[in-house]
Records
---
Amino acid sequence: MTLVARLPAWIKRAKNREEVLRAVGRLHASLGPGPPAGERNRRGAPASPVS
């Protein structure tokens, strides 16, 4: 099953686009700054420091 197929129908409806984008923006802002681009491993987690 694809990621999009798993989303609720109300998220996929075009008429809800603004609400969904606002919610994603709030979530993004609440996470705070992350590591610089390119400093994440393949699973999306911060890369381990190299010893």
---
Amino acid sequence: MNLTTLKYFISVASLGSITEVAKEAYVSQSAVSKTIKQLEEEIGGRIIRP
């Protein structure tokens, strides 16, 4: 886990949209999704609802 991962997670929780987080961070939506998925795998559970 790194700071970028935590930043994406907090932003998704706040904004409620992976797409909006990606736009604000100037990265692809898939990059944010993959980062969130890695975090979920690391902690062993789902943290974002589809």
---
Amino acid sequence: MFRMKPSSADLDYPITWDLAEGDSIVSSTWAAMPIGLPGEGDMAIKAGSQIIEGETTACLLTGGREGRRYRVTTTITTAQGRTDVRSQLFRIGDVEVQA
């Protein structure tokens, strides 16, 4: 299932992780890759926007080409040496509001 993101929007996308008791996130890396060939104006992760707050990591996604799809992947490492990876799928376009 794809999450919608307008191409003009710069938005935070958080992920909350289930950690073992007493564990904490020490690093988080993000990557945004187009599904298909890369091109001008593809979605990107804004430099310096990656945050770690407790069990939540987030980054600011910017840009993207109308109608394109992207996979955003984040990898965390915890203080107890665990590693976890999650991916989210995005499609660039207008978000429909239900009345």
